[in-house]
User: Fold this.
Amino acid sequence: MLAVIEPISRQSGGARLRQHEVAERIKQYILQNRLRPGDALPTEAELCAAVGASRSSVREAIKTLTALDIVEVRHGHGTYVGRLSLTALVESLAFRGLLSRADDFRVLAELVEVRQTIEQGLAPSIVAALDDSLRTGLGEIADQMAELAARGETFVEQDRRFHLLLMEPLGNELVTQLTAAFWDVHAIVAPTMHTTPESVQETVQAHRAIVEAAAAGDADRLSAAIAAHYVPVRRHLQEGPEVSGPDAEEATA
Amino acid sequence: MLAVIEPISRQSGGARLRQHEVAERIKQYILQNRLRPGDALPTEAELCAAVGASRSSVREAIKTLTALDIVEVRHGHGTYVGRLSLTALVESLAFRGLLSRADDFRVLAELVEVRQTIEQGLAPSIVAALDDSLRTGLGEIADQMAELAARGETFVEQDRRFHLLLMEPLGNELVTQLTAAFWDVHAIVAPTMHTTPESVQETVQAHRAIVEAAAAGDADRLSAAIAAHYVPVRRHLQEGPEVSGPDAEEATA
DNA sequence: GCCAATTTGTACGTATGTATA
DNA sequence: CTATACATACGTACAAATTGG
Assistant:
């Protein structure tokens, strides 16, 4: 079972780091055995014996792969193939945004441009893949937003689900995950962004317009509605960093 | 200097892992001291003393942050703030692609759809930001491609530079980095993709058409040229996995 | 609920490789 | 070339979490 992993030759050409070699071996092991997310990996002790490295090196290699969600470790249970999510992208981009947040929101502005480009560009595909359940689903979320806004409450989770539901019928898992990732980054870097009463109403109306355009099956109208949706977001980002979010301690958690 | 980092209280609410706490402290240290990529971080020994953790925990935390390019370690020199690149996204997506490659190219097909959506969606902005140096730059790369193709050689690096140069004038660093990242993922998962003589010629012509459309300042024509550019790519992906690339050992390196 | 086995997490000491002065 | 500072690797011991009897 572990025969596929061969010990590392000390003098193997490139004098690279031990942990890198080990990480490569583990990736190869997953690929060659065609493992899937959730499948069990050898224990640390077995890996040490298999690749001929110390436990420290094996653990540091595992740490790297864990950060990329290639492997997943459960304390006291074992090591498994990870879900290969985009958590690494979220953490990396979020930290970049937090670093530049004090100066300006350039990173976030760029992110919004990417989000808008993707959503508008996929508008034709969205109307083509339209579905009754999707129509009603989007409508319900928009209704919930209006309700919550009327009560003076926020609707961050509804907003996230709305944009994910919009992308879901495309059947493109990467698009869905990128949408979620970008939304999460935005939420981490500027969580309390549009909370003024006016922009809340503006946002509710924008989502309504998107629902109606999608229901009408008009791609151009949908594209325009999406563009309008991001107008208040862009405006807040240009107003400067004084809107601010929580302190660094909580933001990175 | 290190006073900002406070020791970790054992009983601080969530009974989380040591290394996670340490990683958070390091991130906070970077944020609170407003460090920039390349700035020096305390040595491992100093970090140990500052957060009250052992070398093992500190090193594992650093490993996690290194994978996200939040910190960068130079052997025998020290630890520094990382460049915050998208290497983590590349590694993660590339491995996902390699995992599914044996079965199909679904992941890669999804990636191409995202690339095409972004490039087409930004076509209007590109023609708006057009520049003489950009025009000539794109033209030169296209010429090089044609030359190399005539000699029966490949032009992977030219292809990469072409698409990066196309995005550069937008001034959106995230778009540029995402373009590079997606291209790299594609190159890792399917490096020897379009090498049949016909598709090579097709690709050369496609890039020519993009240059001409951009030079003409016609956004719709540019969008169409980009769409045409991806047609042969999509075709190869649909043809199935038998085109194959290198074995797993080299692919993950 | 308790105990024991397995597995990962943390700590510490030591030696080695690497870069700088 | 020597000395110093630092990261890397190895090994051992123990703590914490999970599972099963």
